[in-house]
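Memo to structure team: turn this sequence into structure tokens by end of day. - J.P.
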Amino acid sequence: MIIGYADITLVIMQWDPVSTIRNALWIGGGQWAGKTTVGGILAERYGVTHYHYDYHDARGHEDRRIAARLRRGEPVGSPHPDDVWITPSPAEMAAAVLAGFPERFEWVLDDLRALVTPRPIIVDGWGLRPELVVPVAGSPRQMIVLVPTEEFRRHQLAVLPRAGTFNAQVSDPVKAKRNRIARDGLIIEDVTENARRSGVRIIEVDGSRGAEAIAEMVADHFSPFLA
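Reply from structure team:
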């Protein structure tokens, strides 16, 4: 059967720099809690786009990071690894990371503004802070925070090669790894406190439930937006 042009209804999506961000579904929380795994499961199950914060932050945003340093008159090159992992205390390391999250979040929003889709986008990453996300999201219900228990976090560090390996060339690898673990614990405490303050749901990950089960819980939480 030949269908004439008059019989076809074309739906043309208009670029809107606001709606994509307001329709996004955000998965934040601590490192090694399974955020990206859960985001991938939901993307496959519901056919939505999955934005992987950590990948963009480590690779795609490097040019922006260099440009920002130039604008501030800061050294462009990376600091010596000892100045990052050995000299500062875990509290100072955590404070530096938290202070940098707002600028990094703006780069995420810029990426999302370039995407045009009628469906939600799953955005996951440790830099997605409740105090940053809630003001731009349509509702606090559009965010969830996955927080590993201390026992599960240490389990992940022991069994996940990428979690337990420390690749930076430092003078004292044992101390550097210990500092990083302590730093991450402080950041987890901070995101938990901010989630409670912002009215964002927290799911504690202790290893008793697999990734599929956690994804089911997250999907149920996001169900009004995934339907």
